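Rotation project, supervised by the postdoc (A.L.). Task for the rotation student: set up a whole-complex structure prediction and record inputs and outputs verbatim in this book. Inputs entered:
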Amino acid sequence: MLNFVIFGGPGSGKGTQSDKLISRYGLHHISTGEVLRGHIARGTELGITADSYISKGQLIPDELMIRVLASVLESEPEKVKNGVIFDGFPRTIEQAKALEELLAKYNSTVHAVIGLEVPDEELVERMINRGKLTGRADDNIDTIRQRLSVYHNQTSPLRDFYQAEGKYHAIDGSGDVDQISERIHKSLSDKLPGLAEK
Ligand code: AMP
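Outputs recorded:
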């Protein structure tokens, strides 16, 4: 089992680069944002709770979010057995610790954290454009500002957390999608020489 975390601010290209990683390494993708948006679309109880946080640009509380991730992992044992790209999780140190505990049940761990580094002004511009193209509800300027502040205060400390473990790969996340994907591949294969492509 080979597990990657794709990490970065809102709008940093986590979803886009996850798609590239899936086709390159054949891993399973779990985006907690997509899981939550699915619940909102279906009007489930979790969706109603999640929407009250997402629409304000706040994080879903750790305890609830960790339960959601655990149930996604448990419900898809066949899909996760070769490894997972965790997209949007963890977002706090507490979630990172919980992820280690969950993966320990598979005798596994997080092998690498891919940190997409993009300046704030570029993130804002990308999210405004994505909002226009997709109609994504939290891609409006007020929620974007709140999400950026939450990212800097609550999520970016994870960079140091994973750097201390020697797992953090800083990737320049600006520019062409394929060039960014190549930067990721180079950084991962330097560190994980046995990394097999599909
Ligand atoms: P994303 O699609 O990853 O940008 O996530 C969209 C929104 O879902 C975030 O702004 C949070 O409100 C919520 N969310 C997604 N993942 C998490 C998480 N791991 N912890 C807390 N909230 C999350």
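Student's summary: The chain is about 60% helix and 10% strand.
Supervisor addendum: The longest strand covers residues 112-117.
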